[in-house]
Amino acid sequence: AILAAQLKQEAGFTPGLTSPAGAEGYAQFLPGTWASYGFPVDDNGVVTGAAGEGDPNDIGDAVMAQGRYNCSVADTLRPGIESGAITGDPVELMLAGYNAGPGAVQQFGGVPPYSETQNYVTTITATASDYDLAR
Questions:
Q1: CATH number of 2-131
Q2: Domain ranges of the chain
Q3: Cα pseudo-dihedral 129, 37, 19, 122, rounded to 10
Q4: Among 21, 36, 84, 129, which has the highest number of CB atoms less than 10 A from its own CB?
């Protein structure tokens, strides 16, 4: 449900979008982040670019890379949460790290005071229930 809500917020489930900052695809990855978490993995065997390459505009590749990056952000923040240096809901902190970068969450000891990031976290946590199949 969180992943779906992120995709809704990031690109409205629309492939082919590029932000003014250069973020691409369904999950709006910046090229450097995509290089680490998406490329060169073709997660679903659907070749949309060169054979064996992941594509941020392929929903399967984008979602898998999004999950890998979310897990990486959570892993990066975990020691700070466990020590008490970072406070807040772990899912909200992970979302803030996805949006603003884990360094910003570490710097501020929680969700950064950026209106874009605060709106991102609030919107996704509220929208996730729309995609919760267990309800």
A1: 1.10.530.10
A2: 2-131
A3: 30
A4: 36
